Amino acid sequence: MEPTERIFVAIDTTDTDRARALADQVRGRVGGIKLGKEFFTANGPADVGRVVGGERLFLDLKFHDIPNTVAGAVRAASALKPFLLNVHAFGGTAMMRAAADAAAEAGDARPLMLAVTVLTSLGDEDLNAMGVDGTAAEQVVRLAKLAQACGMDGVVCSAREIEVLRQACGDDFKLVVPGIRPSWASADDQKRIVTPREAVERGADYLVIGRPITAAADPAEAAGRIADELA
Q1: What is the pLDDT of residues 22-36, one digit of tens each?
Q2: pLDDT mean across residues, the chain
Q3: How far apart, in Å, are the Cα atoms of 171 and each of 31, 88, 144, 153, 158?
Q4: Alpha-carbon distances, residue 11 vs 61, 111, 159 (angstroms)
Q5: Which element (helix H / strand E) includes 128?
Q6: pLDDT tens across 76-134, in order?
Q7: 105 Cα distance to chain centroid
Q8: Residues 7, 8, 13, 16, Cα dihedral to 10°
Q9: 102, 106, 205, 228: which has the fewest Cβ within 10 Å?
Q10: CB distance 8 to 84 below 8 Å
Q11: Domains of the chain, with CATH numbers?
């Protein structure tokens, strides 16, 4: 994989013109664009195409509902031809299998299906209060293995989970890692910084990088600098 292919830029705004301008600046210097609930809720599917253009799309909507509803949502989202699409692993076995089956209906345009295991905002105490025994790390591995068995292609995970998930799920299971910060970028609200190169060396496949690129004075230069470091 070329270094640029690993980088998905997280564009978190409700402003379509702003999102499109950012996408235009990094076009050809990254592997794709990530648009999530904030943008999608404000603007809908039509503006997704306006922003992404011909770039690969990570449509980060984290579907979580009954199997039939999620299957329908995956079919609808597949019309946008996302490269990556995700659901919540907490939705369970039947839901993830329904999502995988619905994605397969897209044929050659099938998105890679990812599961979100445990949100990084949840700690051990939060999970215990929800009736989940054990640690967050144990739950992440448990849900990742379940997702793999249900036909998911990979998971979204934190950098600290990369190595244990690679051991548990093998080399072909895709690991998509957000919260990446180059050493030269501001830490912002991130407490445990992992650089792009460190994440890839640990076993990450794709990196989701937001403010180090989108808030830079020159987003294109910032994206190119990250790609150079990965090379």
Answers
A1: 999 999 999 999 999
A2: 94
A3: 20, 22, 13, 11, 17
A4: 13, 20, 20
A5: helix 124-129
A6: 999 999 999 999 999 999 999 999 999 999 999 999 999 999 888 888 899 999 998 88
A7: 22
A8: 110
A9: 228
A10: yes
A11: 3-230 (3.20.20.70)
From the DSSP assignment, how many helices (H) and strands (E) are in the chain? 10, 8
Marked catalytic residue, from 34, 37, 62, 81:
62
**CB pairs under 8 A, 24+ apart, for 42-50?**
42/14, 43/14, 43/16, 45/76, 45/77, 45/79, 45/80, 47/16, 47/19, 48/80, 49/80, 50/16, 50/20
| The pair of three-digit structure tokens given for residue 205, joined into one six-digit string | 């496949």
For the question of residue 174 being annotated catalytic, the response is: no
Instruction: Count CB neighbours of 58 within 10 A.
Output: 28
Residue written as tokens 């992404």?
Answer: 52
* 122: Cβ contacts below 8 Å, ≥ 6 apart: 136
CB 229 within 8 A of CB 1: no
Judge contact between 11 and 51, C-beta under 8 A. Answer: yes
CA 108 to CA 111: how far, in whole Å?
9
First-residue to last-residue Cα distance in the chain: 10
Whether 178 has a pLDDT exceeding 60, the answer reads yes
Q: Alpha-carbon distance 89 to 114, whole Å?
A: 9
Measured between alpha carbons, how far is 182 from 185 in angstroms, rounded to an integer? Answer: 5
- Which tokens sit at 160? 């600290």
